[in-house]
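User: LysM domain-containing protein. Structure?
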Amino acid sequence: MISQKFRIRRKRTSFRAIVLNNSPRKVAILGGALIFLFIVPSVIDRTPSVIPTVSQPVEISATSNEETASIFEPFPFPEGLREQVTFWKKIFTTYTTRQAVIHDDWYVNVVYEVIDLDDPEYSSEKEWKTAIKKATKKYETLLGGMAERWETPHKLSATEQQIHDLFKDLPASSSFKKKDAKNRVRVQIGQADVFKAGIIRAGQFLPEMKRIFSERDLPEKLVYLPLIESAFNPSARSHVGAAGMWQFMKSTGKQFNLTINGTIDERKDPFRATRAAADLLAHNYNSTASWPMAITAYNFGLQGIKNAAKDVGSEDIVKIIEKYKGSRFGFASRNFYVEFLTAVDVCLRYAEFFGEIELRKPLKLAQIQLSDYISSATLEKYTELPKEMLQELNPALHSSVFRKGGLLPKQYALNVPASQKEQFEKRYAAIPKSLKYAYLPTKARHKVKKGQTLSGIAQRYGTPVKRLMSVNGIKDARRVRVGQVLKIPGGYVSLAKRSPKASSSSPAPSKSGQTHRVRKGETLITIAQKYNSSVKAITSANGIDNPRKIKADQVLAIPDQKTRSAPVKTVEHRVKKGQTLSMIARLHHTSVKAIRQANDIKNPRRIRIGQRLVIPKG
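Assistant: Predicted structure:
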């Protein structure tokens, strides 16, 4: 028999639910921690425990239809989803991560058994996990044996009759109920403790998140979606690479203007990721005109949900859930909108489920754009903001920038407490220039070959072993492996004077000592405008023959202020759905030609939603 393992339930994002089946996946994440669970199959001879089915009316029945509509407005709550919402409400508010609910994958309100870790029968977590595995096998065996006798209940044993009764009041034919029932046995770990902690944590973020959604004329209740994605944990990460509170994949994050590189991952910044999520949800809604479809698309993909609606001939979410049989439209996608509705209800009425709990105080942050590369130790010394606080308020920054030898990136919008913004700016200005750097990064990577040592590699690139270890997070210099790719640190140029160890491969700084590191998508035109310079001046200063052939991460010397032309005023515009260059030009009282030149646009028809354009003014 294939060894069975717990796995992450949601293909793309979920960190919270664990499923027991024959999947080859083996990583589950609870509360941000990775858990590897390996269960040995065996046979169980216990009869099912007498557990009330989740199909019984629970909390939701206490509200009237008017109250229910008010809770979920403007999101439709079809009667056909009531049982599913009831099930998930029990998972979110009653059962904890110490309880395993064994249920039917399709009829979620059919619950066979709940196995409690706190039961005296289990002396350890290992025994509990083994019991879950045994119970799952037991119900698969029972259901498999019942299939041929489903229509003759009098021939069933007492245990089988008990299982049969769980299905008797459900819709659909008995043939569907018995068909593959043994393959629909699923384990859902409770989440009440995780979600309670998540709601407490959400207190820091919700006011600003609501402001962001309101600013875009989007329903504020969408801010409760991260409860089911990450329990409002900015550091959450799934085994498929989704990260942050909103669980963006890299490609989607970049599509919605999040910076993701070796130093910065804005998926982990709660408010920057919220802006991206708001834009994504707005795009989904604009494309579907249906909130159930737009929200399901957050999990299943926009084209996926469009294909599903086309296949079943309806945009009714209940019909899509019941009738669409696409191979990718699994348990997670079928239940995503239902879980969202449940999260809204739980978040709005959390005191009814968890009692009076104290939420964390809202974060009040200000952003200060760093004018230089600078170490966290320097910031801590001169601004008196502890490094630990800076790291906590800026989860988008890789931990390496806070280590010895690391630098916070130039032009990064650093989060600081709003109450200390003015003081921070004054103290930052007073930091000696010798401690501020124009960073000249050597974008080198070295793949370790057989026989190479860290000291030998450091000597080859002219960098200290300790710094090479720091940049790569290596604790033991002896533990480098063949094939490992190392980042090779570059040199620094102080604003006060150039370091003799600065990279000779980088361009010499201008008389002003100012340099610019090219970002993906930038052109010489936009860079010139940024520094009130000209393309000609920059190409001349850097020996560039073809102004179109600059590449990301290239470091350019910026000509001295005296040689620059008069300032060119610009504003930034983010392209919205339906906008054209001519419309944008009229909006900003400029010309299409000026916008094309400022953004190096060759084809005026090829602009995309969310694209940021530099708009020349005056």
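The radius of gyration is 29 Å. Confidence is low (pLDDT under 50) at residues 1-62, 497-512, 562-567.
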